[in-house]
Amino acid sequence: MNIVFDLDGTLIDSAPDIQAVSAKILGKLGKPALTIEETRNFVGEGARILVSRMMAARGIEETPERHAQIFGEFVAEYEFAVEKAVFYPGVVDALAVLKGGGHKLALCTNKPELPARAVMKHMGLEPIFDAFIAGGMTKNPKPDPEMALKCVADLGGGPALYVGDSGTDAQTAANAGLPFALYTEGYRKSPVDEIPYDWAFDHFDLLAGIVAEAQARHRAV
Ligand SMILES: O=C(O)COP(=O)(O)O
Ligand SMILES: [Mg+2]
């Protein structure tokens, strides 16, 4: 089966790296860095929205020019912010088990392409994924279904499961017509029961079982 994964808040906790970027950018403007809590809340809809939220949170008035300037500075630093990211518990083993079981895996992230590629390389994820779509590689970011559908097509088509941590991911899966497994320990902004999902899980040890159920469900229809 094809399995499409979100990145930030699903496979890795990258908030400390993003917080460090905010410290550099906001520091130059004489403003305090984002807190980890703010960072987790601001991630999920891509870097442009993250920068808008960061500006609003620090009382920086947003004009198109000001946003473009701060966004440019942010993205220039973002590519090198990979040192603090950590995998959520069980991710490495779960990905190896799924890959070893013959499943095809795709990464589908709103994180811009350069930092997404950089963190994948740093975390040794490149050989795991058979398809990769990041922010800026399609016309529309998630929750538009374009990224997820492109991942499934790049994997060769066929049944797929989408795995993510947020309401944006739930919406993406719904828009793409894919079943959705919600990882509950990421950057979720609403209670689990307010996010539509087919499966919810709090540890990656549970994912192989969910994939087996998704396959069985697909065979049954
Ligand atoms: O960078 C973002 O805003 C989100 O990244 P994600 O799609 O991997 O959660
Ligand atoms: Mg996410």
Automatic annotation (TrEMBL):
EC identifiers of the protein: 3.1.3.18
UniProt similarity note: Belongs to the HAD-like hydrolase superfamily. CbbY/CbbZ/Gph/YieH family.
Gene Ontology MF terms: phosphoglycolate phosphatase activity
GO annotation, biological process: DNA repair
GO cellular component: cytosol
Source organism phylogeny: Bacteria, Pseudomonadati, Pseudomonadota, Alphaproteobacteria, Rhodobacterales
Pfam families recorded: Hydrolase
Top-level EC class as recorded in UniProt: hydrolase
Annotated catalysed reactions: 2-phosphoglycolate + H2O = glycolate + phosphate
Superkingdom assignment: Bacteria
Pathway noted in the entry: Organic acid metabolism; glycolate biosynthesis; glycolate from 2-phosphoglycolate: step 1/1
Record's protein name: phosphoglycolate phosphatase
